[in-house]
Write a structure and sequence with these properties.
Layout lengths: L6 H17 L2 H8 L6 H14 L17 H14 L6 H14 L2 H12 L5 E4 L15 E5 L2 E8 L10 E7 L10 E7 L5 E6 L8 E12 L3 E2 L5 H12 L6 H17 L1 E2 L2 E2 L4 H29 L7 H23 L29 H7 L10 H11 L4
The structure holds flavin-adenine dinucleotide (FAD).
């Protein structure tokens, strides 16, 4: 397998770089690189820029408005946009629901929802997890009872990322209680402004409320909002998860984090010289860099295999574990590098144009918030413990 880019791929990379130079607003890149808080409007601005270029639904086939890229081109795009400091593409509509509707949705659902995902008319969120149904998703209890032309939904979802911004939520709901739990699940699209839907913020350890509880109290949903067949939801849920797990290694994010860490370690001082030269710190930095290079190579191997038509197997679990452990290690070293300035946390200072004094250098300000926020990396998208179980069965045959 050849891990070097071809001439065409290098030309493609240069085209992506030229586009980013011209189209990525400096204001957004500064916010991302400076660890500032992104608003809904920031994400929407970047989505609109990508959509205008035809580069928002990068996994979408051309017939649905995608650019028709292969796995390596998508990888190059992800790497370049992350390195340039572009806001991430909020995945729920573009990367999760879009592919589901293309495969399981009716023609009417595709015609209605897909263009609205791309042009930003609908902001989607993901209603899978419930209290008591996270890793063991099939035990979910939110019910949808058929009543004439509608379903009546009751129950609670949790950890709903950016649900406070969402116009709509795609949900796994229980439509039957007989047989195996997986057999009684359906996939339903629900308007967030339907009577009976309530969003309650959850404040996390970093002080942010990016996740929510979403409650459903006799919420009436048109039956035409069912995707696929009734009780086919588990198949759809699994299909969606394969899309959730693309770019799971997060190589670009780790590279950006490492670059930031090196910049900080060059400016901070220990025993009268730059921290980056202090043997104990330099050794840790070198170790994480080596781990990242090894993971980036493994990631490229899976990307090249995907481009050759092979479906990723348990390698995704390896990449999930290594990718998240490396990013958390970079976050821990960044906090260590800024020393006592990691202690004060002035939340308002993360807002653009905030009129508050940050304590310590600018680069220290997001260190603790990012460290705490990224504890999530080893939990969502299938916790690292669950990934280890998959490896033990699929690779080690235990
Ligand atoms: C920041 C954040 C954002 C999220 N966003 C969303 C979202 O938008 N929509 C959504 O639907 N969900 C979302 N989730 C939920 C996420 O998918 C779940 O948190 C995850 O699936 C784990 O489920 P749980 O929290 O219920 O933990 P549990 O499943 O209860 O697990 C608790 C602990 O037990 C371990 N464990 C569980 N089963 C096993 C096993 N078989 N073997 C070994 N160890 C095991 C886990 O690793 C974990 O350490 C989000 C979570 C977080 C933290």
């Amino acid at each position: 397998m050849d891990l070097a880019y071809t001439d065409d791929q290098i030309a493609f990379r240069d085209a992506v770089r030229a586009f980013l130079d011209e189209a990525l607003p400096q204001r957004l890149a500064d916010k991302v690189k400076g660890g500032k808080r992104l608003t809904k409007a920031d994400y929407e601005e970047w989505h609109a820029i990508l959509n205008a270029r035809g580069w928002l639904g990068v996994t979408w086939p051309e017939e649905f408005g995608g650019p028709g890229w292969d796995a390596i081109e998508r990888h190059i795009f992800e790497e370049e946009t992350t390195r340039a400091g572009a806001p991430r593409i909020v995945p729920f509509g573009v990367n999760m629901l879009g592919p589901v509707l293309m495969k399981f949705g009716s023609r009417a659902q595709q015609d209605h929802y897909l263009p609205r995902i791309l042009d930003g008319s609908d902001w989607w969120c993901q209603g899978y997890s419930e209290p008591g149904a996270g890793s063991d998703l099939a035990s979910l209890k939110t019910t949808a009872r058929r009543d004439g032309d509608s379903y009546v939904v009751n129950g609670q979802k949790t950890w709903t990322t950016l649900g406070q911004y969402a116009d709509k939520i795609f949900c796994l709901v229980r439509t039957a209680s007989e047989g195996k739990p997986q057999e009684g699940i359906s996939f339903l699209l629900i308007d967030m402004d339907s009577p009976g839907v309530e969003v309650r913020p959850i404040v996390l350890i970093d002080g942010e409320a990016e996740v929510n509880e979403v409650w459903f109290d006799d919420v009436k949903v048109p039956a035409e909002n069912l995707v696929g067949e009734e009780n086919q939801g588990w198949t759809i849920a699994k299909y969606l998860l394969t899309h959730e797990r693309t770019n799971i290694a997060g190589v670009g994010f780790a590279q950006a984090g490492l670059e930031n860490l090196r910049r900080i370690a060059r400016q901070e001082r220990a025993d009268g010289r730059p921290l980056i030269e202090a043997p104990f710190f330099a050794a840790k930095l070198a170790q994480v860099e080596i781990d990242l290079m090894a993971m980036a190579t493994t990631n490229l191997r899976t990307v090249a295999a995907a481009a050759a038509g092979q479906a990723p197997g348990a390698e995704s679990s390896m990449l999930k574990i290594k990718g998240t452990v490396i990013r958390q290690e970079i976050n821990a070293l960044t906090r260590q590098a800024v020393g006592p300035y990691a202690m004060p946390f002035v939340s308002e200072a993360l807002d653009e144009g905030a009129n508050v004094e940050a304590v310590g250098p600018d680069y220290a300000m997001p260190a603790t918030q990012t460290y705490f926020n990224n504890r999530k990396l080893s939990i969502y998208g299938g916790s690292n413990e669950v990934q280890r179980q998959i490896i033990s069965k699929a690779i080690l045959e235990l």
